[in-house]
Amino acid sequence: MSEVSPPSISSDAAAHDTQTELTERQQFWLEHLRACAKANQTTKDYAQAHGLSVKAMYTARKHLAQRGTSKSTTTAPFARVRVAPSPPTTQWSVQLSNGTTVSFSGAVDGQALHTILQAAASLS
């Protein structure tokens, strides 16, 4: 028994079907949003250059995105990144009044430093 898959629709045909369902006003904004993306301009710059309301462009983008129409016109403004911890490079050197020098590198918590310095200070 084999399954029959539905016929595929090219992206141009799918885009055409979606666009025919849009109102004239939605089509107007979709064309401007696509032109803005193609021009690689910010929404603010594009709106000002074409005498459009910046707020209206953002509103249209939101409404068209909710319809699933304008996904191709926007990109994510942020990307998730993970910062890996860098190896410790901090060098510490403390010379005590009894002449003892304590040197170490990296991160040290306050309690450990206190214990080390007390032990070094007790040397004579």
**Main sheet record:** 2 strands, antiparallel
| CA(first)-CA(last) distance | 90 Å
Helix content: 40-55%
Spans with pLDDT under 50 lasting ≥5 residues? Answer: 1-18
Computed CA radius of gyration, to the nearest angstrom: 31 Å
- Along the chain, the helix and strand elements come as HHHHEEH
Portion in beta strands = 5-15%
Q: Compute the average pLDDT.
A: 76
Question: What strand line-up does the widest sheet have?
Answer: 1-2
Secondary-structure topology with pairs:
Layout: H1 11-20, H2 24-38, H3 43-49, H4 54-67, E1 91-95, E2 101-105, H5 110-121
Antiparallel strand pairs: 1-2
Helix pairs in contact: 2-4
Give a structural overview:
The chain has two domains: 15-73; 91-121, no CATH class. 47% of the residues lie in helices and 8% in strands. It has 124 residues and is mainly alpha-helical. A hairpin with a 5-residue loop joins strand 1 and strand 2 (101-105). The chain contains five helices and two strands. It has a two-stranded antiparallel sheet.
Compact overview of the structure:
By secondary structure, the protein is mainly alpha-helical. The chain has helices at residues 11-20, 24-38, 43-49, 54-67, 110-121; strands spanning 91-95, 101-105. Mean pLDDT is 76; it is low at 1-18.
List keywords for this structure.
124 residues; two-stranded antiparallel ribbon; 5 helices; 2 strands; mainly alpha; 2 domains
